[in-house]
Design brief:
Radius of gyration: 38 Å
Shape: rod-shaped
Helix content: 40-55%
Largest sheet: 3 strands, antiparallel
Distance between the termini: 109 Å
Number of helices: 6
Strand order of the largest sheet: 1-3-2
Structural class: mainly alpha
Order of helices and strands: HEHHHEEHH
Strand content: 5-15%
Protein backbone atom coordinates (compact mmCIF):
# COMPACT_ATOMS: atom_id res chain seq x y z
CA UNK A 1 0.00 0.00 0.00
CA UNK A 2 1.00 3.59 -0.61
CA UNK A 3 -0.07 5.06 2.71
CA UNK A 4 1.25 8.62 3.05
CA UNK A 5 4.09 8.08 0.54
CA UNK A 6 3.78 11.33 -1.38
CA UNK A 7 6.93 11.18 -3.58
CA UNK A 8 6.78 10.26 -7.26
CA UNK A 9 7.44 6.53 -7.79
CA UNK A 10 8.17 7.13 -11.50
CA UNK A 11 6.51 3.81 -12.43
CA UNK A 12 9.39 1.76 -10.97
CA UNK A 13 10.13 -0.48 -8.01
CA UNK A 14 12.39 0.90 -5.27
CA UNK A 15 15.64 -0.71 -6.47
CA UNK A 16 15.10 0.34 -10.09
CA UNK A 17 14.21 3.90 -9.02
CA UNK A 18 17.31 4.27 -6.80
CA UNK A 19 19.60 2.95 -9.53
CA UNK A 20 18.04 5.30 -12.11
CA UNK A 21 18.38 8.36 -9.84
CA UNK A 22 21.98 7.40 -9.03
CA UNK A 23 22.83 7.17 -12.75
CA UNK A 24 21.10 10.50 -13.48
CA UNK A 25 22.96 12.16 -10.59
CA UNK A 26 26.34 10.86 -11.83
CA UNK A 27 25.57 12.10 -15.36
CA UNK A 28 24.58 15.51 -14.00
CA UNK A 29 27.77 15.81 -11.94
CA UNK A 30 30.05 14.69 -14.78
CA UNK A 31 28.38 16.62 -17.63
CA UNK A 32 26.90 19.57 -15.61
CA UNK A 33 23.74 19.51 -17.80
CA UNK A 34 21.47 16.65 -18.94
CA UNK A 35 18.18 16.35 -20.83
CA UNK A 36 15.37 14.31 -19.28
CA UNK A 37 11.64 14.40 -18.53
CA UNK A 38 10.26 16.90 -16.03
CA UNK A 39 9.10 14.34 -13.40
CA UNK A 40 12.52 12.64 -13.45
CA UNK A 41 14.24 16.03 -13.19
CA UNK A 42 12.15 16.99 -10.16
CA UNK A 43 12.92 13.65 -8.48
CA UNK A 44 16.61 14.07 -9.35
CA UNK A 45 16.64 17.56 -7.83
CA UNK A 46 15.44 16.15 -4.49
CA UNK A 47 17.96 13.32 -4.74
CA UNK A 48 21.12 15.21 -5.73
CA UNK A 49 20.92 18.48 -3.76
CA UNK A 50 21.53 16.89 -0.32
CA UNK A 51 24.49 15.01 -1.82
CA UNK A 52 25.97 18.26 -3.15
CA UNK A 53 25.47 19.89 0.27
CA UNK A 54 27.35 17.00 1.87
CA UNK A 55 30.24 17.50 -0.57
CA UNK A 56 31.00 20.96 0.90
CA UNK A 57 32.65 19.19 3.85
CA UNK A 58 35.55 17.23 2.32
CA UNK A 59 36.09 14.41 4.81
CA UNK A 60 36.46 10.67 4.44
CA UNK A 61 33.04 10.13 5.99
CA UNK A 62 31.27 12.50 3.58
CA UNK A 63 33.08 10.92 0.60
CA UNK A 64 31.95 7.44 1.66
CA UNK A 65 28.40 8.64 2.22
CA UNK A 66 28.18 10.23 -1.23
CA UNK A 67 29.74 7.11 -2.78
CA UNK A 68 26.99 5.00 -1.20
CA UNK A 69 24.44 7.06 -3.18
CA UNK A 70 26.33 7.59 -6.45
CA UNK A 71 28.24 4.27 -6.79
CA UNK A 72 30.83 5.83 -9.19
CA UNK A 73 34.34 6.85 -8.18
CA UNK A 74 34.70 9.30 -11.08
CA UNK A 75 31.50 11.13 -10.13
CA UNK A 76 32.54 11.37 -6.46
CA UNK A 77 35.98 12.73 -7.46
CA UNK A 78 34.42 15.29 -9.81
CA UNK A 79 31.91 16.30 -7.12
CA UNK A 80 34.55 16.98 -4.46
CA UNK A 81 37.25 18.48 -6.72
CA UNK A 82 35.28 20.60 -9.20
CA UNK A 83 31.66 21.07 -8.12
CA UNK A 84 32.11 21.63 -4.38
CA UNK A 85 34.59 24.57 -4.70
CA UNK A 86 32.30 26.27 -7.25
CA UNK A 87 29.22 26.11 -4.99
CA UNK A 88 31.06 26.81 -1.74
CA UNK A 89 29.16 29.99 -0.77
CA UNK A 90 25.73 28.99 -2.18
CA UNK A 91 23.31 28.00 0.62
CA UNK A 92 21.20 25.71 -1.57
CA UNK A 93 19.43 25.59 -4.92
CA UNK A 94 22.34 24.05 -6.82
CA UNK A 95 20.27 22.87 -9.81
CA UNK A 96 17.99 24.58 -12.34
CA UNK A 97 15.24 23.05 -14.51
CA UNK A 98 14.67 24.59 -17.97
CA UNK A 99 11.60 23.23 -19.77
CA UNK A 100 12.07 22.62 -23.51
CA UNK A 101 8.70 21.40 -24.76
CA UNK A 102 7.20 17.98 -25.47
CA UNK A 103 8.76 14.80 -26.87
CA UNK A 104 7.40 13.76 -30.28
CA UNK A 105 7.04 10.06 -29.56
CA UNK A 106 4.82 10.06 -26.46
CA UNK A 107 4.25 13.75 -25.69
CA UNK A 108 6.28 13.65 -22.45
CA UNK A 109 7.30 17.06 -21.16
CA UNK A 110 11.08 17.44 -21.58
CA UNK A 111 13.59 19.70 -19.85
CA UNK A 112 17.23 20.37 -19.15
CA UNK A 113 18.46 20.07 -15.58
CA UNK A 114 21.80 21.73 -14.91
CA UNK A 115 24.11 22.86 -12.15
CA UNK A 116 23.52 26.58 -11.61
CA UNK A 117 27.15 27.66 -11.14
CA UNK A 118 28.33 26.07 -14.38
CA UNK A 119 26.00 27.94 -16.77
CA UNK A 120 27.74 31.14 -17.84
CA UNK A 121 24.68 32.46 -19.73
CA UNK A 122 22.43 32.78 -16.68
CA UNK A 123 25.19 33.11 -14.08
CA UNK A 124 28.07 35.30 -15.33
CA UNK A 125 31.51 34.49 -14.00
CA UNK A 126 32.50 36.44 -10.93
CA UNK A 127 35.10 39.14 -11.44
CA UNK A 128 38.19 39.37 -9.31
CA UNK A 129 37.72 41.23 -6.06
CA UNK A 130 37.66 44.91 -6.91
CA UNK A 131 39.01 47.65 -4.68
CA UNK A 132 36.30 49.72 -3.02
CA UNK A 133 35.87 53.02 -4.83
CA UNK A 134 36.03 56.16 -2.74
CA UNK A 135 35.41 59.75 -3.69
CA UNK A 136 38.25 62.21 -4.01
CA UNK A 137 38.23 65.99 -3.68
CA UNK A 138 37.45 66.66 -7.35
CA UNK A 139 33.91 66.15 -8.54
CA UNK A 140 33.24 63.03 -10.62
CA UNK A 141 36.71 61.50 -10.31
CA UNK A 142 37.29 58.46 -8.14
CA UNK A 143 40.53 57.66 -6.38
CA UNK A 144 40.51 54.09 -7.75
CA UNK A 145 40.83 55.29 -11.36
CA UNK A 146 44.21 55.41 -13.06
CA UNK A 147 45.53 58.93 -13.41
CA UNK A 148 48.12 59.94 -16.02
CA UNK A 149 51.32 61.11 -14.36
CA UNK A 150 52.24 64.65 -15.32
CA UNK A 151 55.56 65.16 -17.11
CA UNK A 152 58.05 67.40 -15.30
CA UNK A 153 58.05 71.04 -16.44
CA UNK A 154 61.73 70.98 -17.43
CA UNK A 155 61.12 68.11 -19.89
CA UNK A 156 58.15 69.86 -21.51
CA UNK A 157 60.11 73.12 -21.90
CA UNK A 158 62.95 71.21 -23.56
CA UNK A 159 60.53 69.49 -25.95
CA UNK A 160 59.04 72.88 -26.95
CA UNK A 161 62.51 74.28 -27.66
CA UNK A 162 63.44 71.29 -29.84
CA UNK A 163 60.20 71.62 -31.77
CA UNK A 164 60.77 75.32 -32.51
CA UNK A 165 64.38 74.63 -33.57
CA UNK A 166 63.28 71.98 -36.07
CA UNK A 167 60.59 74.24 -37.54
CA UNK A 168 63.17 77.03 -37.99
CA UNK A 169 65.52 74.60 -39.76
CA UNK A 170 62.75 73.57 -42.12
CA UNK A 171 62.02 77.21 -42.93
CA UNK A 172 65.70 77.86 -43.62
CA UNK A 173 65.99 74.84 -45.92
CA UNK A 174 63.20 76.16 -48.15
CA UNK A 175 65.14 77.90 -50.93
CA UNK A 176 63.97 81.35 -52.13
CA UNK A 177 62.60 81.26 -55.66
CA UNK A 178 63.04 84.95 -56.61
CA UNK A 179 65.85 87.43 -56.13
CA UNK A 180 63.71 89.64 -53.88
CA UNK A 181 63.15 86.81 -51.35
CA UNK A 182 66.87 85.95 -51.14
CA UNK A 183 67.91 88.80 -48.74
CA UNK A 184 64.94 88.10 -46.45
CA UNK A 185 65.78 84.40 -46.35
CA UNK A 186 69.42 85.23 -45.53
CA UNK A 187 68.33 87.48 -42.66
CA UNK A 188 66.05 84.74 -41.31
CA UNK A 189 68.92 82.25 -41.47
CA UNK A 190 71.21 84.65 -39.57
CA UNK A 191 68.58 85.20 -36.88
CA UNK A 192 68.09 81.45 -36.49
CA UNK A 193 71.82 80.95 -36.14
CA UNK A 194 72.03 83.70 -33.49
CA UNK A 195 69.13 82.12 -31.57
CA UNK A 196 70.90 78.74 -31.56
CA UNK A 197 74.13 80.35 -30.36
CA UNK A 198 72.23 82.12 -27.57
CA UNK A 199 70.74 78.84 -26.39
Amino acid sequence: MRHNKSFNHLGRQAGHRKAMLSNLACSLILHKRIKTTVPKAKALKQFVEPIITKSKNDTTHSRRTTFSYLKQKEAVTELFRVVAPAIGDRPGGYTRILKTGFRLGDGAEMCFIELVDFNTVYTPEKKAAEKPKTRSGRKGQKSGEDEKPEAPKAETAQAVEELTATTEELLIEAAPETAEEAPAAAENAEEAAEDKAAE
